[in-house]
Amino acid sequence: MIEIAHLTKEFDNPDKTRLGVLRDVSLTVEAGDIYGIIGMSGAGKSTMLRLIGLLDTPTSGTITVEGKDLSTLTGKAKIDYYKTVGTVFQGYNLLMQKTVAQNVIFPLTLSKGYDKAAAKKRVAELLELTGLTEKADVYPSQLSGGQKQRVAIARALATNPKLLLCDEPTSALDRLTTDSILGLLSDINRQLGVTILIITHEIAVVRKICNKVAVLEGGTLVDNGPIGEVLDSDMHPITRSLFFGKGEI
Amino acid sequence: MAEFLAEYGSIILVAIKDTLVMVVLSTGFGYLLGIPLGVVAYVTDHGSISENRVVNTVVGWVINIVRSIPFIILILFLIPYTRFIMGTASGTRGVIFPLVIGSAPFIARMVESSFNELDRGVIESAQAMGATNFQIIRKVLLPESFPSLLRGMSIATITIIGYIAMAGMVGGGGLGAVAINYGYYRYERPVMNVTIILTILLVQLIHVAFNLIVRRVDKNK
To answer: From CA B30, how far away is CA B33, in angstroms rounded?
Structure first.
């Protein structure tokens, strides 16, 4: 599904030379995976997600998604790519002046001459899936953090993406809410066959729903693979402290 | 009182009407010019959706240069252009043009700062959904900052009322002109007082009205 080869990202901004860089990262995500990318802040996790989400371009290396080299996408192909990838952010990034239903329908309204009836039906399905049917006409400011993230997830799924990118989706949430959001993501993965890439600094997230994990440290991939294999291998000290230390870095 | 009303009543009534016409027209046209300017200033800024250093610098300079000129000087400087465009450089008609030119850069900055209040993450997530820059401006930037734009409009409108009074010094109409021509040059103290009270009422009215509207419109509270 995603083939990342020798991905390197540097920033010319002197303040950021050390933070968020990536050095020669290679990684394969298969369809159906829930892939966790874990690391300390500044390890390059978010940079990686931004590159896969085509919100930024790499310094060198390639990202191929479903056979398409992202660096070759321009114009309409680029817009189409955005529609096959859903993104969920830590800060929800909802439209605060629009209702829940209007937020969820938003990605669909970006396509010219979209089918209004079909879009409405799709919104109803997504609200049902995320348990927000009763909140359809409520504004985000009246929702809890967990509910806001559900709206963001529903919105990210509106265009029926095959890939869902999640940037610290539960970091702003309490434990119970985190569990319910992770449960939702896991359902989405199983029921809709959506491949999920999830960035986190909490090992609990990886333990609960990921089948594979990549550990980033200072821009380099130090451990990577199915969780069982990583646990059986000679782990990098960072990985060890993640899994067997306090569980959080 | 009856004597005062007989002598100045109609003059003041006309002045109120003129002031209102000038406020509405110059705020309206000021925004017609100021919003696009503010949008351009915002989207071409460093790290924004359509970063463009040259355009951003040029727009910034134009805005700052016009804002640097004291409004009363700007009116005088613009007289030949005002005559050319409006056909006259005096009266209500002659004041609208300099008012629009003088307020547009101020409005542009207000608009830009409303946009800057928005969380950049919202714009980024629209990009991640495949929104074009034009769609981001029309469907995210403007509607999401609408309440803040209205708050800015309240301030802009009140500033324009001040500008209108200044324009009264150099042949403009409205309450300011009445205060200057009758209250000041003819030493008619009551006229001065009445125009001041009316202006205070007008400003209060605008302030309260905008507050009520914003409270209605803003869903993020």
So the answer is: 5
Is A55 in Cβ contact with B122 (below 8 Å)?
no
A110's tokens:
């970006």
Residues in A closer than 8 angstroms to B131, CB to CB, are 110
Separation between Cα atoms, residue A133 and residue A137, nearest integer Å? 9
What pLDDT is stored for residue B2 in this prediction? Answer: 81
In 3D space, the residue among B90, B116, B98, B112 whose CA is nearest the CA of residue B30 turns out to be B98
Which residue type sits at B125? S
Range of the domain at B90: 2-217
Per-residue pLDDT at A119: 95
Note whether B134 and B50 are within 8 A (CB). Answer: no
Q: Could you list the residue range(s) of the whole structural domain that residue A132 is in?
A: 2-244
- CATH code of the domain in which B47 resides: 1.10.3720.10
ipTM score of complex: 0.87
Report, as ranges of residue numbers, the positions in chain A whose pLDDT lies below 70.
Answer: 13-19, 246-249
Residue B144 to residue A80, Cβ atoms within 8 A: no
Give the pTM: 0.89
Quote the distance between the C-alpha of residue B197 and its chain's center: 21
* Number of domains composing chain A: 1
Taking only the tens place, the pLDDT of each residue in B62-121 is: 999 999 999 999 999 999 999 999 998 888 888 999 999 999 999 999 999 999 999 999
**What's the structural domain count of chain B?**
1
CATH number of A170's domain: 3.40.50.300
Chain A residue numbers with beta carbons less than 8 Å from the beta carbon of B129 are: 82-83, 87, 106-107, 110, 159
Determine the Cα–Cα distance for residues A42 and B104; give it in Å rounded to an integer. Answer: 43
In angstroms, the CA B193 to CA B199 distance is: 10
Helix (H, G, I), strand (E, B) or coil at A218: coil
- Chain B residues within 8 angstroms (CB to CB) of chain A: 119, 121-122, 124-132, 135, 139-140, 143-144, 146-147, 218-221
**Phi, psi at residue A183, to the nearest 5°?**
-60, -40
Q: What tokens were used for A15? A: 């303040």
